[in-house]
Each structure stands twice: as structure tokens, then as C-alpha cells.
Amino acid sequence: MKLRRRAPLLSVVVPVYDVADYLPACLGSLLAQTYRPLEVVVVDDGSTDGSGAVADEWAARHDEIRVVHTANHGLGAARNTGVAHARGELLAFADSDDVVPPAAYDVLARALRGRGVDLATGSIVRWEGEALVEPPWMRRLHRERRTVTVEEHPEVLGDVFAWNKLVRRSFWDDHGLSWPEGLRYEDQPTTTRAFLAARRFAVLPEVVYHWRIRSDGSSITQQRSSVDDLRDRWTTKQMSLASVRAHGSPEVTEVFLDRVLAGDLHRYFTEIPGCSDEWWALLHEGVVSLWGERSLVHSGLTPVHRLTGWLVEQGRRADAAAVMTYVARHPGPVPRRDSPAGPVIDVPLGDDAAPVPHEAVALRAHER
């Protein structure tokens, strides 16, 4: 009689800070996982609202949960502390205000059984009101089940989240992976390094995570108008780009610059009208540093945001503000017109605005 090999222990690291209202749903979803054996390592990062006590109560009732209490050092440090306490051969991360579907880790763990597969990643949905919606760009990245290298699917570097992935602990340790500490947006540098280092990784179409964007404005991703937020964003982008360039593939680097690194800039461009001088200077500096040689006119941004990116590159603050103000007041497709060089967008910049080159306003064939 052939004995069945015991499944490897899976450790889920859950950093916690002032989420007492959400933590029970998160922990309940982890205990409901069909994958076993499983341990949940909760790191109470100096919570002030009783979250630590909630975690302790759950740990007292459930052997799978262990709690580590620390002073407040931030998300990256809490995750790293959790990894240090994790005992599993497989490693996952979950944020304490989110929910993991019951079969998520089963699905991801099966994908890791493939030869030479170091990492598995699935799609996500996020709460929009009461509905769970899969972002179109995530659906595109996870359109089909694939086991690939980064050269075969470089756009997957846009899947920057820590919490929709499962990795082998040996892979994590062998490549010295950890989360940056003291920064916002700490996910991207580490997930980028992981994709680049993996011999192969599995990309799955299944939804493995339910992401909550809190409506109270407390989520880090809702604070883009602050100088500190923008400075951290540029830092993590520079860290990620340095890893991609060190990988040494010109094709991967080009996709990363055009389709990944530029992907969230439109959210910052909306903050240009009314921004402070310091914030504008930092935005201009970051755009020039990252795209000054290539230009955002080559990026995967929408036409109006490619134009705004070019205006930021050129330091044309008033014109960039005019475009974003116009877009805010006129939602929907922007006006278009024909030009001798082909169709272009037609967005007012102001009577005294300097000319704009065709490539900054051109429509691509699929946009016409």
C-alpha cells in the first residue's frame, strides 16, 4: 500500500494595525480554507483599537492561529516579523481587512506542484459598494492558466499585490526576499524581485482574494495628494525598475516601463489641479527621472493621460492642470479631430498654450 505524502504546512502572515472591525472576517476566512495543514501568524503592529486583543481571543479558540505583538513599525516590518515566525514550507500573506475565498490556497498550492514552479498567483476581486468586481487589468493578466517565465509574460509584473500569491519558503529564503520597511507601496519591489527570480511561476484565472478599499479614506492608496505618499511611490518604482534592469532583458524592461510602471500615474495626474508647488516639483522630477529618455507618449496610458504625462515631462504645469480639470468636468471620451498626421485628441489647453507635438496627442489604431 502506497502512503500518500502529507501536504506541506502553509503559513499565512497577517499584519494587523487598528482593524478590529474587519479582523474577525479575515481570520474566519482563513480558518475556512480547504487547504490543510495551515497556520496563521498574526502580527499585531502596535494596534491602539483593541485589534491585538481580538487576535488573542481568536488564537485562544483556534490552534491554527498564533499572535505576535510588536511596537508599531509599519506594514513591511510586520510582514517580515511574521515571516520570521512562520514555520511552513509554503508562504502566503493576507491583509487584515480583506477576505480569502475558501478554496484559494488549495488552488494555488496545486499550481506549485509543477516542476520548477516557485510562485503561483491568482486573480482578485475588490468590493465596489456591495459588489465584488474583478479589475479588467487583472482579468487580462490572468486570462488563462499558464506556467511561464517573466520573459514569456512580462506584463504580469503589473500584478504587484502581496496577497494573491503563494511561494515556496525555500525560494523566499534562497533569494533573500523581504518587504521594504518604512515605505508605502512596499508590495511592488518585492513582488517584482520574486517574478524575476522565479524559475517559473503559475498564473491562474481563479479569483483567490477579496480586496477591501475602505470608504473612510484610511487606505494608503487613498492618500496620493501628499508629498510623503508621492515620494514613497517614486522610491518603490525606482527600486522595482532597478531590479528589472539588473535582470538584463531589454524586452522585459521596455514592457515594464511602458505598461507596468506607468500604469497608476493617471491617479496622480488627477491631483495636479490645486496641488502644492512641492508636490508638483516632485511629480515632475519623478516622471523625468523614470521616463525622460523614453517619454510617456510610448506608454500604455490612455491618450489623455499620455498627453498629461508629456506635459509633466515638459514642466508645463498650467497646461497639465487644464487638461485634468477639463477631464474632471467632462467625464467620458475626450473630443477627437483629424489632423494631417492622423486622428488626435482635442483637449483645450488655453489660448496662450505652446504647441503640442503630434505624438503627444496621437490616437493609436485601436483607439480610433
UniProtKB/TrEMBL annotation:
GO MF terms held by the record = CDP-glycerol glycerophosphotransferase activity; hexosyltransferase activity
InterPro entries associated with the record: Glyco_trans_2-like, Nucleotide-diphossugar_trans
* UniProt keyword annotations, A-Z: Transferase
Q: What class of enzyme is it?
A: transferase
Q: Which organism is it from?
A: Nocardioides marinisabuli
**Protein name per its UniProtKB record:** CDP-glycerol glycerophosphotransferase
Question: Residues in domain Glycosyltransferase 2-like?
Answer: 11-169
One Pfam family per UniProt: Glycos_transf_2
Q: What is its EC number?
A: 2.7.8.12
Under the heading Gene3D superfamilies, the entry gives:
Spore Coat Polysaccharide Biosynthesis Protein SpsA, Chain A (3.90.550.10)
- Record's keyword annotation contains Zinc: no
